[in-house]
Amino acid sequence: GVERMCSLFKEELTMVMRLMGTPTIADITEDHVLYNNLMTHIPAQARDYLQLDTYEPLRPVTKL
Fold this sequence. Notes:
By secondary structure, the protein is mainly α. Helices cover 38% and strands 0% of the residues. The protein has 2 helices and no strands.
């Protein structure tokens, strides 16, 4: 779970740093970070319709 996620993150960060030409985190500068227009880089969150299809309201208990 968490160990696998951390491993994937490390591998991804290592690959991105290689592609950027920054061998260490200390080599990453402000020039490498896109921050002036974040809204164009953040995708919209999709609505989760699965919850609407799987939820069944509880029925009240009636006396017989």
